[in-house]
Amino acid sequence: MEWLKLLILTFQSIFTILFNPFFWLIIFLIYTQYKKVSRMEISLLGEEKATAKERVFSSFGVGILGGVLGTLLMTVLGITVQLEDFRYILPLAIILMMINIRYLCFSYAGGIISLFSLIFGFPKVNVSSIIAIVAVLHLIESILIRIDGYRHPTPIFIRHDIYGIVGGFTLQRFWPIPFAVILIILTKLQGATNINLPDWWPLFIPKGLDVNNITLQLTVIVAALGYGDIAISSSPKEKVKKSSFRLALYSILLLILAVISCHIYIFKYIASLFAPIAHEGLIIYSQREEKKRRPIYKNPPKGITVLDVKRGSVAEKMGIKSGDIIWKVNNYVIDEKEDLLYILRQFPSFIWIEVIDEKGRSNILEYADYLNGIGSLGAIIVPRFSDAVVSPQNNMSIIKNLFKKFIKK
């Protein structure tokens, strides 16, 4: 019953986040990033796959779920913080995000603050506690990536060294994470509610503090988690499976280091360095892996490859899927995108398309519109030649983009 009381109190405190200005600042920053994604989709596709508001709304719901899971884990593990521990981390995370959007991550800000505390003595923070929270947040992030990371992927064209123009997807998701933590108050508070907890709890508490002379108070901390990746050699869903597994492994190792650092001082340095370096290493390894592996959205010897299908389009209604190869349309062999466009410019009232799916199976799909004719499939085709090629690193720095706009003026 005592644990149940504590969990009820922590979950109730999450709803106070609606009155926290930092939470709405995070929402606004996430909205600006999704607006940038929408603009890129319009420039490449002529329309956005989802509006920035739709993306923010879905991220909000998933973020709340992540906050509940994070709260549960940190409560059970007995992770405690002092107010000073997070006074600097969120502002630093926002500053780092301005340098590169992928730095909107507590592994970088938490690692830097922890190292400054260990080396220079300022700010004085509980390093083990910070690293533990970073580990739990990334464990939650791995779950969110698995269930939500593939949502609204943005189709792009990339120039490959071997295969020429190939298709791919950028995966960009951002989540606001409100979670309740146990705040350490250094003096006993009058009228505080007493809850009997196990002797080992809390686990992450600074050495030198008299446990009998402190009060544990619930508070809500606002975090932001971001996932950015690119899928060229695999589908978005397959990509997030791999990414989430690796991030979960990273999180577990980081949490182990945090626990050890409570007892062995040198591990505070090891954990503080491991947090940002290993996280960056995961990103670099993933990018290099994509470059080495064979892309799946490439031009075949014959036919054209479908990269993506627009919502509500003829292609979607016919059952055409990402990765399908269009081989024939109305019995005409299709060798390039212009062959398809030539047929559709005649607005046929009935079309049948022979496609080959990713497993090499041939299917014949049909569609009819006797009233208006069919002038567009709504399928995004991988071109053999295109100027609309993007780099996965484009528009990653907010500061750089603002500087470019200032120079143009």
Rg? 25 Å
Beta-strand content bin: 15-25%
Uncertain runs = 185-193
Reported for the largest beta sheet, the result is:
6 strands, antiparallel
Alpha-beta content class: alpha+beta
Which quaternary structure do these chains form? Answer: single chain
What is the overall shape? Answer: elongated
Calculate the mean pLDDT score and round it: 82
Number of helices: 11
Task: Name the helicity range.
Answer: 40-55%
What is the string of helix and strand elements? HHHEHHHEEEHHEHEEHEEEH
Per DSSP E runs of 2 or more residues, the count of β-strands stands at: 10
**Distance separating the two termini:** 64 Å
Helices and strands in order:
Layout: H1 2-14, H2 21-45, H3 52-77, E1 80-81, H4 89-99, H5 106-120, H6 127-148, E2 154-160, E3 164-185, E4 215-231, H7 236-261, H8 266-292, E5 304-309, H9 314-318, E6 325-329, E7 332-333, H10 337-344, E8 350-356, E9 362-368, E10 379-381, H11 398-408
Parallel strand pairs: 1-3
Antiparallel strand pairs: 2-3, 3-4, 5-6, 5-10, 6-7, 6-8, 8-9
Helix pairs in contact: 1-3, 2-3, 3-6, 4-5, 5-6, 5-8, 6-7, 6-8, 7-8
